[in-house]
Amino acid sequence: MRTFVLPLVTCVAFVGADVAGAAPVSRDDPEGAESNQRIISSAAGSAVVVTAHPLATAAAHTMLMQGGDAVDALVAAQSVLAVVEPQSSGLGGGGFLLHWNAQQRQLDVLDGREQAPSASRPNDLLKPDGQPLPWREATSQLRAIGIPGTVALLWDAHQRWGRLPWTTTFQPAITLARKGFRTTPRLLRSIRLAQRIGTRHSTEFDQLYRPGGELPRLNQVFRNPALGDTLEQIARDGGSSFYDGALAARILKGIAELGSQERAFQGWAAADLKNYTVIRRHPVCHPIQRWQLCTVPPPSGGGLAILQTLALLEATGPMSNPKRPQTWQRFATALQWADADRYYWVNDPSDWPVPTKGLLTPRYLRGRATALLDQPASIPGPGLPPGRSHYPFARTSAGVEQGTTHLSIVDRHGNLAVYTGSVETVFGSRHVVAGMVMNNQLTDFAFRPSIQGRPVANRRRPGKRPMSSMAPLIVLENNQPVLAVGSPGGRTIPHFISRVLMASLFWGLPPEQSVAMPHLSIRDNRLVAERDSPIPWPFALTELSRGEQEIKSQPLNSGIALIQRIHGRWHGVADPRREGAAMALP
To answer: Per the structure, how many domains does the chain have?
Structure first.
């Protein structure tokens, strides 16, 4: 593993800047942002793993050293992350896997997104007067917890592609849960953020993460024996035991006991767990210059947004100079136009078909690019793709999911596992069952199922999966992977990944620079520029604004895991904005 010390950044004062420090806890940034560690972890070799925590990277690296497949390393890494990074992902959450099988030269998507239990109702997150629950209150509701898909996804992937015994891949996580690991600044900061959002509804959370009402000390050995028992049971009995058997009964009992505290909660049925299935989907791909970019399809809209953003940039002229404010202005505008489509059209495709192909047809994208150039300062609405004659849904505001992790792995055989997992908000719902942090992913559905009598596309219904922004992505050249990337960051995920791809593909920058360059986002027609980015902005941020457009400066909490093939070797880079690490085999 190599480390690079990045240059210190001089802060730039400008209109709309916030006071120093992390952004407040909000629907846009419920996990907050780290202070940049100024050191970037990088590694290169025949096989590479990049995850959000050094212990998870080490566990995955051990599996690769033992001859394991990328999926064996994935299972080891995600099970360890459930122990050491519970604020972001775990067994009580869900995710998406983009997998490349080198021998068959085939891409697959495994959808392990959470789904609404059978007792769900469209108005579950509305107050009696019909108004939406406040976001913070909604995240703590049992009605916000979706049926978890993480274990099912890991089990399905391992059954298809794993080489090592299933039990072997869980041993690092079991050891860490029982013997303990040393707390990090990020974990302690996340516990504080969870307390600010609210933990009084969960005595189990406070007993585990704030014993005696006190925050654990930095570098204190932290143990989670209940999670260790759960991990061992899954390792011994297989992933299916999570959904049908003694462990499933334990989970249902825990949820039922919590349900006595929430009158409106309708409970989970045994069939909700037993009938959960991982969905194997076809990736959605689009050509950009000489590359083919492939990512996960709906119910995630993040990948669609990335493909549209880069296609719009390609169609509106050269993007060759990162030092010009105009380049970044056009980038932000493309993000906004892509967002307008994903927020309107994307939902669970089993509910209403999503016009993914139509939204990526050359004719449609050319029309959107022309409109973007003609109206660069306008607030765009969704387009009308080929085959659609009208707008069937009501327009609603965007949702968020921020308690997320990402990892990218390539093994010696050339197989890739590119995976994004989440529990949604920091520590999800803050409910804990069998040692597991339970998600609050159902707040990713629109709270209002209809507006003025018109249905909202992303509405909550039994068995449905909410729209996501998770977007693991692989770049192919001549039908061979040359780059894989993903990031946490909620609805800003496609903004982060689009910027990395712009740097890597359009500007040809090396992986360390592509990851460490500043981020730019856009929310509600307001530019959000990263403050204290690992590499400084090349110009005064006042130059980004067009006219009266407001600019907000704040830390942005990406956690990019990038692997790229350069001169026959794989290079991996972990985002210095978090505590991730990269390791490689020679």
So the answer is: 1
